[in-house]
């Protein structure tokens, strides 16, 4: 992925580089042209306008030797040397003639020069005047030109500036676009990363949730196990308590049975199939709170004997333990049913 | 007895289930009272105190001239003591002597351990005695009996026995026998002067009256079911003859005067016939005689001696004594003329069967280690138990409620009638004024 990333970056850079090179070259050209133009228009002093024809001897410029091929070069050099000797001879003759000519011409020229100097002086005077005028005109023109040039320069500068600005703007835009692109990419990347992060976080959250759920489940199971254990222990304790209560209750049941047996005088009419059931309610002190005949034996004397027996105990033997009392002795049933009659 | 029980049970159920709505409501109330579904504790009492019931009979308050003799309260106290079922508080131990409810402090009586309290007052109104009495359940602080009864002053004892009967029934649930009578024979004198007297008295031996006096033996008195007649054997004619004696008029009738032996009369439950032992056919056999016609039915057919027939509780079968096994043993014939089943197997001598009124036991004279005692055999399981141990015990007779047994015996060389509870409780004796006392017969309850 990073490879792709890098690739996309380099492909983006190449046009930019070529763009830069192009612009550098273009600027260079522009600069050269400007310089040339500027030297042409500004730095060259104005040529004095000849107001009289003058001749001056100028030695001819040696003509450039033609370019020959390498194989002809020795022959040519030979010919050259001959031609140079002839030339030198001719040139010596020429020089003598010229020297003579020169002397004559010097004389003429001096005369002429005098004449000319006069004319010249006159002409120069006129010329000076002319020149002053000219100069004024030229200055005006120069000023105008300079102005124009300045204007031009300004225009160019402005143009340049504009271009530069354009370029800058373009660059800026480019940059902006690039940045935009970059930003977008970054944004996308961020977004992607954010999404990834979100996804990761989601997964993490899910994972954590799952873990939490598992933990909770485990916790719950553990708690349930603990609870079950607690319940089991409680049940065990309750059973133990129950057993204790039961054994205690049995003890007191035995005591009550004994006391009631001693207190019960079954009437002579009692038979073994007679059963009187009494529901009795005790106070925690063992005192009888109430007694109710819930099932008659069908024999009044028998019922009375049972009621009398139950009522005859001033205090029932009951456990001190209040739970046991409440559980078994607060209210219970006594059944009178003789098994062995006297 | 079984039949009576099931009847009471049947009576009880429709009463409690008569109203289903009420029954439901009661069930709900019981549930609500219990508070939860858990089973309520149930304590079963299957044994009672092996003791007499503590009863306080306060001497009755008296107004007017009282007849001579025992006071009403004393008679009642004595009767209740005699029954063997009550333990009477001595008057000197009483903290107060109330004669009506307003004077009763139950706590005092409870403190004295009393279960029942009888208070009353007797007043003389002309020649009548009037008794007003109340019986209280001390622990429940409830009056369970209250009555006013009167009798001629000359019959003060009857009034006392009546109150005893009422008290007895209120506490035990069965009728008292204090107003019943005894018949017995006394023998006094020697040789020419020997006198046999058939006597009738109250169950406490008081008010005895000679009904027949003879120089010849009188044996086996038997009460008619209505209590108005006695049948007995008299030797007055020189041989044993069965008479029926009307007590109210003193009229006597010879009912069996056959050749040979005429003995052991016993009344049928309806009072219309007599069982008797006759040897008119050469051997002693048990017969049934219709009193109105004198028709005889022979019930036993055996070469051995069969005698002392008596009706069982159902009135359909008879018990009798037979020596068909070699010595006297008790047999039962479920239907007249049916198969005789031997009842007693313990010892070589078992005679004079006296079945109780509810078909549970048959009592008889049993010879044991050379002595004669009264024993009984449970008719369901055949188990034999000894009831009396005095030795020389004979002629057992049961009280109508089956709670007491009277028999003739000897005490310190004296002939006495002894009364014991069939359940082995207290006993009392009726000593003969002189000579011997024999053949007691307990009379029926007459109302």
From TrEMBL, chain A:
Superkingdom of origin organism: Bacteria
GO cellular component, one term: membrane
Keywords linked to the UniProt accession: Cell cycle, Cell division, Membrane, Transmembrane, Transmembrane helix
A molecular function GO annotation: toxin transmembrane transporter activity
Location, primary (coarse class): membrane
A family per Pfam: TonB_2
TM spans (from-to): 16-40
Region of interest called Disordered, as start-end residue ranges on this chain: 42-249
Protein name (record): Cell division and transport-associated protein TolA
GO biological process terms, semicolon-separated: bacteriocin transport; cell division
Ranges of Basic and acidic residues composition bias in the record: 74-242
Topological type in the membrane: Single-pass membrane protein
Organism: Marinobacter persicus
Cell compartment(s), UniProt: Membrane
From TrEMBL, chain B:
A Pfam family recorded for this sequence: PD40
Subcellular location: Periplasm
The TolB N-terminal domain, residue ranges: 42-143
Family annotation (InterPro entries): 6-blade_b-propeller_TolB-like, Tol-Pal_TolB, TolB_N, WD40
Record keywords: Cell cycle, Cell division, Periplasm, Signal
Keyword Chloroplast in record: no
Entry superkingdom: Bacteria
Principal subcellular localisation of the protein: periplasm
Gene Ontology terms: cellular component: periplasmic space
GO biological process terms, semicolon-separated: cell division; protein import
Similarity remark: Belongs to the TolB family.
Function: Part of the Tol-Pal system, which plays a role in outer membrane invagination during cell division and is important for maintaining outer membrane integrity.
Subunit-structure text: The Tol-Pal system is composed of five core proteins: the inner membrane proteins TolA, TolQ and TolR, the periplasmic protein TolB and the outer membrane protein Pal. They form a network linking the inner and outer membranes and the peptidoglycan layer.
Record protein name field: Tol-Pal system protein TolB
Biological classification of the source: Bacteria, Pseudomonadati, Pseudomonadota, Gammaproteobacteria, Pseudomonadales
């Amino acid at each position: 992925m990073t490879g792709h990333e890098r690739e996309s970056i380099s492909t983006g850079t190449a046009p930019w580089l070529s763009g830069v090179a192009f612009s550098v070259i273009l600027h260079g050209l522009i600069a050269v042209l400007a310089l040339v133009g500027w030297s042409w228009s500004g730095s060259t002093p104005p040529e004095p306008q000849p107001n009289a024809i003058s001749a001056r001897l100028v030695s001819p410029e040696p003509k450039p030797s033609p370019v020959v091929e390498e194989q002809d070069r020795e022959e040519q050099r030979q010919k050259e040397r001959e031609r140079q000797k002839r030339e030198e001879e001719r040139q010596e003759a020429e020089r003598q003639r010229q020297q003579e000519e020169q002397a004559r011409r010097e004389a003429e020229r001096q005369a002429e020069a005098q004449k000319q100097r006069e004319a010249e002086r006159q002409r120069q005077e006129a010329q000076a005047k002319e020149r002053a005028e000219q100069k004024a005109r030229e200055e005006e023109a120069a000023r105008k030109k300079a102005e124009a040039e300045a204007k031009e320069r300004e225009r160019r500068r402005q143009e340049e500036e504009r271009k530069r600005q354009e370029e800058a703007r373009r660059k800026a835009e480019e940059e902006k676009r690039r940045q935009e692109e970059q930003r977008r990419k970054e944004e996308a990347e961020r977004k992607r990363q954010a999404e990834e992060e979100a996804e990761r976080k989601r997964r993490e959250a899910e994972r954590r949730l799952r873990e939490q759920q598992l933990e909770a489940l485990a916790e719950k199971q553990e708690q349930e196990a603990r609870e079950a254990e607690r319940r089991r222990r409680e049940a065990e304790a309750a059973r133990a308590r129950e057993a204790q209560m039961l054994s205690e209750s049995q003890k007191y049941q035995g005591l009550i049975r004994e006391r009631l047996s001693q207190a019960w005088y079954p009437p002579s009419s009692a038979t073994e199939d007679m059963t009187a059931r009494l529901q009795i309610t005790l106070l925690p002190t063992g005192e009888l709170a109430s007694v109710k005949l819930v099932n008659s034996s069908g024999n009044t004397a028998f019922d009375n004997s049972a009621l009398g027996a139950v009522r005859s105990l001033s205090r029932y033997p009951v456990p001190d333990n209040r739970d046991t009392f409440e559980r078994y002795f607060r209210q219970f049933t006594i059944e009178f049913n003789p098994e062995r009659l006297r | 007895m079984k039949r009576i029980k099931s009847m009471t049970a049947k009576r009880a159920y429709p009463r409690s289930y008569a109203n289903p709505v009420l029954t439901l409501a009661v069930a709900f109330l019981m549930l609500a009272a219990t508070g939860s579904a858990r089973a309520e504790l149930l304590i079963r009492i299957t044994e009672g105190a092996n003791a007499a019931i503590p009863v306080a009979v306060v001497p009755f308050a008296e107004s007017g001239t009282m007849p001579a003799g025992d006071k009403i309260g004393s008679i009642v106290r004595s009767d209740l003591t005699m029954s063997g079922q009550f333990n009477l508080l001595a008057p000197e131990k009483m903290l107060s002597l109330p004669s009506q409810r307003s004077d009763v402090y139950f706590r005092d009586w409870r403190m004295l351990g009393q279960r029942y309290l009888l208070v009353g007052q007797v007043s003389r109104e002309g020649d009548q005695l009037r008794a007003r009495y109340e019986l209280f359940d001390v622990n429940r602080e409830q009056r369970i009996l209250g009555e006013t009864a009167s009798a001629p002053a000359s019959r003060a004892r009857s009034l006392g026995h009546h109150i005893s009967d009422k008290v007895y029934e209120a506490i035990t649930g069965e009728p008292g026998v204090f107003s019943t009578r005894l018949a017995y024979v006394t023998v006094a004198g020697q040789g020419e002067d020997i006198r046999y007297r058939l006597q009738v008295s109250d169950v406490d031996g008081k008010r005895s009256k000679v009904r027949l006096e003879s120089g010849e033996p009188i044996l086996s008195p038997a009460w008619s079911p209505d209590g108005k007649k006695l049948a007995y054997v008299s030797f007055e004619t020189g041989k044993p003859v069965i008479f029926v004696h009307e007590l109210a008029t003193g009229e006597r009738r010879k009912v069996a005067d056959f050749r040979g032996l005429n003995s052991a009369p016993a009344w049928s439950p309806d009072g219309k016939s007599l069982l008797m032992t006759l040897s008119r056919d050469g051997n002693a056999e048990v017969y049934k005689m219709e009193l109105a016609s004198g028709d005889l039915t022979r019930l036993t057919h055996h070469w051995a001696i069969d005698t002392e027939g008596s009706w069982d509780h159902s009135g359909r079968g008879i018990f009798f004594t037979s020596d068909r096994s070699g010595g006297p043993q008790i047999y039962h014939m479920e239907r007249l003329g049916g198969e005789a089943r031997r009842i007693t197997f313990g010892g070589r001598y078992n005679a004079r069967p006296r079945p109780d009124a509810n078909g549970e036991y048959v009592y008889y004279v049993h010879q044991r280690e050379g002595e004669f005692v009264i024993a009984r055999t449970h008719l369901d399981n055949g188990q034999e138990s000894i009831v009396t141990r005095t030795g020389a015990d004979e002629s057992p007779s049961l009280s109508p409620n089956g709670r007491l047994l009277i028999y003739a015996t000897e005490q310190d060389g004296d002939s006495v009638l002894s009364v014991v509870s069939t359940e082995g409780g207290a006993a009392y004796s009726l000593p003969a004024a002189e000579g011997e006392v024999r053949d007691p017969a307990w009379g029926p309850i007459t109302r």
